[in-house]
Amino acid sequence: MTTSGRPRGRPRDPVAQAEREDALLAAATTIFAEHGFRQTDVQWVADALGVGKGTVYRRFASKEALFLAAVDRGMRHLIAGINEGLEGIDDPIAIIAESVRLYLAFFDAHPEVLELIIQERAEFKDRSKPTYFVHRDANIDPWRALVAQLVADGRVRDLQVDTVLDVLSHTLYGTIFTDHFDRCGRSFASRADEILDVLFHGMLTEPGS
Question: How many beta carbons lie within 10 A of that of residue 164, not counting itself?
């Protein structure tokens, strides 16, 4: 008997594989957000997709790996949504303003992603860097360049670029957490104009005005 050395069966379709994985992570996101990491049984995720539990474990070795992949998916969707929403915008100030609006609107539309971010901070305190900050840091360089150009053009005061970015990042991150726990009844997006007004115009009047 001879063999050709080629694998048996049909070649795997990478697009279909990616779609199946995304569906799996979407289901996991919903279930983890509703029940919490500790209470969730991976079987529930399998049941939601009509597959066996082993199918889930063949892709993700543990419940922790599945959970962290779900958080990662949420962050990738956030970044992709912002980038898509910025297409066609050229003015750097307008890019910053629209980014703030898109960021806040994303968490209005996807509260389950915020819930997973909160759970990750609570359940995996020993991680050197939470998923949210991994993605923030991996995508920060274009923002550094944008703010540096605004400073060079005289449109932003001569501030440290990282200081500007830290203030903006911490303000947005703090807003979604504070409003989530405060349950003030306002959408995250409704905060955008307030944040932009203080960020762009400050809070002090000119002396003597």
Answer: 20
Predicted TM-score of the model (pTM): 0.89
Secondary structure of 24-60 as H, E, C letters? HHHHHHHHHHHHCCCCCCHHHHHHHHCCCHHHHHHHC
Q: What is the CATH number of domain 14-201?
A: 1.10.357.10
What are the sequence ranges of the domains in the chain? 14-201
Separation of alpha carbons 37 and 123, rounded Å: 8
Residues 113 and 74: beta-carbon distance below 8 Å: yes
Element at 84 (helix H, strand E): helix 63-85
Tokens of 115: 């819930």
Distance CA 91, CA 136 (A): 22
Which region holds residue 154: left if phi is over 0, alpha if psi is between -120 and 50, else beta?
left
Q: Using only the alpha carbons of the chain, give its radius of gyration.
A: 22
pLDDT in tens, 142-171: 999 999 999 999 999 999 999 999 999 999
d(CA 32, CA 66): 10
How is residue 155 written in tokens?
A: 């449109």
